[in-house]
Amino acid sequence: RELYRRGLRYRVNLQGLPGTPDVAFTRAKVAVFVDGCFWHCCPLHGSQPKTNESWWRRKLDANVERDRRKDAELEDLGWLPVHVWEHEDSSEAASRIYELWSTRRASIPR
After folding, report:
1. d(Cα 37, Cα 107) in Å, to the nearest integer?
2. CA distance 110 to 105
């Protein structure tokens, strides 16, 4: 909502790109992922379950590795992957995304 309020238009859950970005700016080629603190091992809020620890460690490590892999695939396609933690202030995250979008749009030949 905050991005839309700022005048940005985007696609949600765009199929066909690595990782299916939560928000995608197709002309600027910016792919935004909103990462959950638990599932993506947030350094501030990520937690390790106490039950079945080794299974969860492998699962969560695999999620982080998949994120790195899909980011590299997006970069190879000319896209800029951007990650926002679920706990981030939406206004601050929108400002960061807006700046990246503006920079990318300015560099695209018309």
Report:
1. 33
2. 10
Token pair belonging to 105? 């749009």
What are the beta bridge partners of residue 85? 35
**Residue pair 22/49 in contact by the 8 Å Cβ criterion:** no
Residues 10 and 12: their CA atoms lie apart, in Å, by: 7
3-class SS of residue 5? helix
68 Ramachandran zone, left/alpha/beta (phi>0; psi -120 to 50) = alpha
pLDDT digits (tens, 9 = 90+) for 31-45: 999 999 998 999 888
Does an H or E element contain 35, and which?
strand 30-35
Query: What pLDDT shows up at residue 16?
Result: 94
User: What contacts 8, CB < 8 A, 6 or more positions away?
Assistant: 25, 97, 98, 101
End-to-end CA distance of the chain: 28
- Whether the CB-CB separation of 97 and 22 falls below 8 Å is answered with no
Full-model pTM: 0.90
